[in-house]
Amino acid sequence: MSLSNPFLTYWYFHLPNFALAVLMYTLFGRALLALFIDPDSKNYIWRFFCRLTDPVVVAVTVVTPRAAVPVVVWLFGVVWLFWLRVLWLNIFLYFGVLPRVN
Description:
mainly alpha, 4 helices
């Protein structure tokens, strides 16, 4: 059985990449929302963004100086997730399990 859909064929690459992208863009959205919403707001969108991105924020605060304000930590998290996605792509390209564009 041949799968013609590239997403289904390479699901083992696309699903983790999609999850990392969701975290990256949600963390960026959290940084933008922080400009308009108080940190202790009961807004359901703000709480969703916080709940989804808190594990990433905790991981980034381990390697970020304590003097950094939360918004800086969130933006560092966006950068770390971006480079993690680039690394993920390069690993799969290196081992030849994704098609190369000529």
